[in-house]
Amino acid sequence: MEFPDELQYTEDHEWVLVEDDSVTVGITDFAQDALGDVVFVELPDVGEMVELGKPFGVVESVKAVSDIYAPVSGEVIEINAALTDEPEVVNSSPYEDAWMIKIKPSNPEEFNDLLSVDEYRALTEED
Amino acid sequence: MKGIGTSGLILNEKLLFEHSAAGRKGYSLAQLDVPESTPPQELVRDEIPGFPELSEVDVVRHFTRLSTWNYGVDSGFYPLGSCTMKYNPKVNETAARLPGLAQLHPATPQSLAQGALELMHGLQGALAEISGFAALTLQPAAGSHGELTGMLMIRAWHEAQGRPRTKVLIPDTAHGTNPASAAMCGYEVVPIAGTGGVLSAARVAALMDEDVAALMVTNPNTLGLFEAEIREICAVVHARGGLVYCDGANLNALMGIARPADMGIDVMHFNLHKTFATPHGGGGPGSGPVGVTAALEPFLPKPVVVRDADNYRLDDDRPQSIGRMRSCYGNFGIMLRAYAYIREMGGAGLKRASELAVLNANYIRARLEGTFDLPYQGRSLHEVVFSDKNLANDCHTLDLAKRLIDYGYHPPTIYFPLVVHGAIMIEPTETESKEVIDAFCDAMLAIAAEAQDNPALLHAAPVRTKVQRLDETGAARKPKLKWTG
Fold first, then answer.
1. CATH of the domain at A37
2. Whether B200 contacts B172, CB under 8 Å
3. Whether B128 contacts B291, CB under 8 Å
4. Neighbours of B186 (CB within 10 A)
5. Looking at residues B108-117, what average pLDDT do you find?
6. Structural domain contains residue A127
7. Whole-angstrom Cα distance, residue B407 to residue B2?
8. What 3-state DSSP class applies to B17?
9. Do the chains contact at B415 and A87, CB–CB below 8 Å?
């Protein structure tokens, strides 16, 4: 199972790429593997506000429907609309092609609560 | 291979559209004995392109053949966890088909429908006795509809206190319909994690505040575990002005043993199609009556069946009612079946049914827990949830479920509850004999051995069915919803 070092993570199995003025979010390799074949992804609209720890979208697999939680608060500035037609890339490319949304963060202090790759790997090994 | 599944001649069947032949029809009209007239053009229906033209025998054979592909509680064991797929006694069907009941028009004046009203009143009384609630509505047409009804009453009660509140607490073992019902009533859903598979009063207390309208619980919960702290939990919620909703899906574990109202529950829906042996149908008709405490009684949907000195009537004069939840009076035919079941079983019989449902689940647990992983070790009630952790050679829950079909069993509920990774949720109900349950356990154990020795059997399953492993992923990603010839 792959967890890129340059990313940060949440306990709800989202990955987070923090850049200068945006935060990119997707779900981890662990999450896609646990969900199984993803068949539907629902994302917010650009311009919507998301709040730390609250659901911003939905991933549906053949097994279950799961919420995706915002790792930080802020405004949605871009979404990966291609996932609507090709949800399978969540399984095949969780960290690259299946990025889900970009957020313009409103409170950078929230970054302190994100997990490092080592912390996240330890969490998945507990499960 | 042991098990009840064998292969035999299964007739193929085309779609009705593919049977169609121009001009073929399934009716014959008497010779015209009045002058022919030509209707106005605007009333004449356009031809429906592609509409199948069929004879009576085409239609009868079509549906009869399709029915032979079906699998139901009348064909075999159906251990679908959380669904309580018990056998539906045929005497209930007889009762519901009595012409005086089956042909009763819903608009019949109340004075001429006293028998029907008396039966509804009797069912309300029986459900009140089983659950301990002060009052009931029979209107909701399904469990989820009952949830919506119950949550609307909770909302109305809070509004009557001056503030509707904003949040509903829901444990992580809940049925998916619970958060959906709360959200439909405008509430924000706050999930609560369990401890060892059950809720703790301390954790509820930590989340409970003056914005929480209700806690929605299922007891026993979807892991088949009794919420042992339920009284303390209800007290914690009540102390902060909230109410407790119970999803009655698992009432089959409790009849005659414990009453939800005595636990401190304020509102609960029943699933007549689960606990009280009425058919689940193809997604309906179901019936989801809702019981409430005396404090919530004014908010019941109207009309309510009441008894006066010497007659029964429908009471519409209920100013605080949330209104009508269903046309006419609910699914009356389902109520009749449930009432016939309750009256035939009697109090002692219902208690015995719950005891046997619990015994059967625990017997399955005892036979399988040495082989299958049991993630939550608490004492099981009416159902038991295993995981696929111990299955060898990359075999998973879905493969096990498909292989069970080859052995002649309906698979259990899979991948639910979500707190168990690869969940296999087995609810045998009380209606199965030891022989049936043993044969099922033998099949489960044989499949676990196959996973070890010949995993290809699981990965290819089912192989003995008319159609083999379906591409469920493809069907969900690229659904074909229309016949295109």
1. 2.40.50.100
2. no
3. yes
4. 12
5. 96
6. no
7. 7
8. helix
9. no
Which backbone phi and psi does B289 adopt, to 5 degrees? -55, 155
Residues in A touching B176 (Cβ below 8 Å): 65
* Separation in Å, CA of B415 to nearest CA in chain A: 6
pLDDT more than 70, % of chain B: 99
Out of A62, A65, A127, name the one closest to residue B473 (CB).
Answer: A62
pLDDT (tens digit per residue) in B273-329: 999 999 986 656 899 999 999 999 999 999 999 999 989 999 999 999 999 999 988
Find out whether the peptide bond into B462 is cis, omega within 30 degrees of 0: yes
Tokens representing residue B374 in the block: 């049991």
Interchain pair A40, B476: CB under 8 A = yes
Measuring CA to CA, how many Å separate B124 from each of A73, B133, B323?
A: 50, 10, 19
Parent domain of A35 = 10-113
B473: chain A residues, CB-CB within 8 Å: 37, 39, 62
B477: nearest CA partner in chain A: A39
Within-domain flag for A5: no
CA-closest candidate to residue B449, choices B382, B384, B378, B370: B370
Query: Does residue A1 or residue B295 have the better pLDDT?
Result: B295
Give the number of domains in chain A.
1
**Residue B285: cis peptide before it, omega within 30 degrees of 0:** yes
pLDDT higher than threshold 80 for residue A64: yes
B464: nearest Cα among B135, B117, B65, B6? B6
Per the domain annotation, does A126 fall within a domain?
A: no
**CA-based nearest residue in chain B for residue A84:** B477
Query: Nearest residue on chain A to B479, judged by CA atoms?
Result: A39
Tokens describing residue A16 = 């987070």
Q: Which of B26-30, B99-103, B121-125, B239-243 comes out lowest in average pLDDT?
A: B26-30
Q: Across residues B330-352, what is the average pLDDT?
A: 97
- What are the residue ranges spanned by the domains of chain B? 91-344, 354-476
Nearest CA in chain A to B389: A127
In 3D, which of A62, A48, A64 has the Cα closest to residue A13?
A64
Does B476 contact A62 at a Cβ distance shorter than 8 Å?
yes
The residue length of chain A stands at: 127
Please report residues of B whose CB lies closer than 8 A to that of A34.
421
Question: To the nearest whole percent, how much of chain B has pLDDT over 90?
Answer: 85
pLDDT on residue B47: 77
The CATH architecture to which B91-344 belongs is 3-Layer(aba) Sandwich (3.40)
A120 located within any domain: no
Q: Give, as one character, the DSSP assignment of residue A60.
A: E
Across B365-387, average pLDDT: 96
DSSP state of A109: G
* CB-count burial class (<10 Å; 0-12, 13-18, 19+) for B161: exposed
Q: Which of A72, A124, A64 is nearest to A103 (CA)?
A: A72
Length of chain B: 485
CATH for B354-476, options being 3.30.565.10, 2.50.20.10, 3.40.1280.10, 3.90.1150.10: 3.90.1150.10
